[in-house]
Amino acid sequence: MSLPEAGPFAAPWEAQVFALVVALRESGLFTWGEWAETLGATIRPAGGPEAAADYASWLGALEALLAARGVTDAAALTARRDAYLRAARATPHGAPILLENDPLHDA
Does 64 lie in the same domain as 104? Predict the structure, then answer.
């Protein structure tokens, strides 16, 4: 008996980033050429030409494109990331991480 393959994503957030990139490209926010250029610029500082394009790089490239297009800005991205991390710490193991779990959500 063989084990099922893990698939291309190591965690659900990776699949979500992939889906967001595809959906936003399909909506016309950016072209595949712009995506490739932004992803490449995100990867190069992380480790030179041999650096791998992992989904953390995809997330960084997506954030850069969203900021460049005026969809969001660095402060909003930082605030959302911080809220997510607080929510993650406040969420019981195995439960979905919801921004509503951020202890500062209603503050």
Answer: no
* 83 within domain boundaries: yes
Domain with 50, as residue range(s), is 12-72
pLDDT single digits (tens) 57-82: 999 999 999 999 999 998 999 999 99
Question: What is 18-67 written as a DSSP string?
Answer: HHHHHHHHHTTSS-HHHHHHHHHHHHHHHHSTT----HHHHHHHHHHHHH
Residue 61, classified by CB atoms within 10 Å of its CB into exposed (0-12), middle (13-18) or buried (19+), is buried
Burial class (CB within 10 angstroms; exposed 0-12, middle 13-18, buried 19+) of 103: exposed
Give the pLDDT of residue 10: 84
Token duo for residue 12 = 């659900």
In a 3-state reduction of DSSP, which class is residue 8?
coil
C-beta separation of 89 from 104 below 8 A: no
Residues lower than pLDDT 50 in the chain: none
**pTM for this one?**
0.75
